[in-house]
Amino acid sequence: MPHKERGKFITFEGLDGVGKSTQLEKLAVHLRKQGLKVIKTREPGGTLLGEQLRTVLLSSRTSGLSPLAELALMFADRAQDIDEKILPALARGQWVLCDRFTDSSEAYQGGGRGLGSDLVLQLHGTLCRNLQPDLTILMVSDLGANLARARRRNIEQAKGADNDENRFERENHAFYKRVLDAYLSIAEREPQRVVQIDAREPAGKVHKKIVETVEERLVRGSN
Ligand code: TYD
């Protein structure tokens, strides 16, 4: 049997409400039009187990979760996503687009909750066998605008539902400033993997930049 070329693994990162999910969807449509096989996943939540963990992690009904327990649950979700979805898809030659990955843990739990990067990277080494994305799109915008958008959206979604996804959005400005700073440090540390995209532009323009980045880094790079 001919050896199948491994697919590419692209992650999307950024603060809540920055427009990641919209851009991930647009990129998936674009890549499929190019004839590529693409699967999407998200963390927390890409698998059946992950959806249950997501409810626990994001619901504002979950109170008193310790930062370490929160980190452990994020990694439980990720370990499952990697084994169940990401690695099998890559091995089949599919491209995997993932809404958040370990950079989120480094930014939110490492930076936001103050657990530090070392612990997160150690866990990534053990529990994720250090799987690295081929490319990470880090979407950056104004702190205030992001949070206002994320809060509005989650309040809307929670109306009439018996659960919500507001636990993180309740954090204050200082928390999100630490998250953003941690993201920017990761981008500085790993410029070969992480590309910052200005998310303040209209969605169409942002999409164009993301497509250019993917072509530059992954399509031309692999020829
Ligand atoms: P998500 O739906 O991705 O957020 P949004 O669409 O608002 O950007 O929600 C995931 C939330 O979980 C988000 O607030 C970030 C947080 N999170 C962590 O704190 N650590 C992690 O490792 C991951 C994957 C997410």
Described by the principal axes of the CA atoms, the overall outline is globular
User: Helix- and strand-based class?
Assistant: alpha/beta
CATH superfamily: P-loop containing nucleotide triphosphate hydrolases
Total domain units: 1
Strand order of the largest sheet: 2-3-1-4-5
Number of helices in the DSSP assignment: 8
Any overview of this molecule?
The chain has 223 residues and is α/β, with parallel strands linked by helices. The protein has one domain (9-222): Rossmann fold, CATH 3.40.50. It is 55% helix and 12% strand. The chain has helices at residues 20-33, 48-58, 67-91, 102-112, 117-127, 143-158, 173-189, 203-219; strands spanning 9-14, 38-42, 95-99, 135-140, 194-198. α2 (48-58) packs antiparallel against α3 (67-91). The chain starts with 8 loop residues before the first strand and ends with a helix. The mean pLDDT is 93. Bound molecules: thymidine-5'-diphosphate. Residues 16-17, 20-21, 43-44, 58, 74, 99-100, 104-105, 108-109, 150, 168 line the site of thymidine-5'-diphosphate.
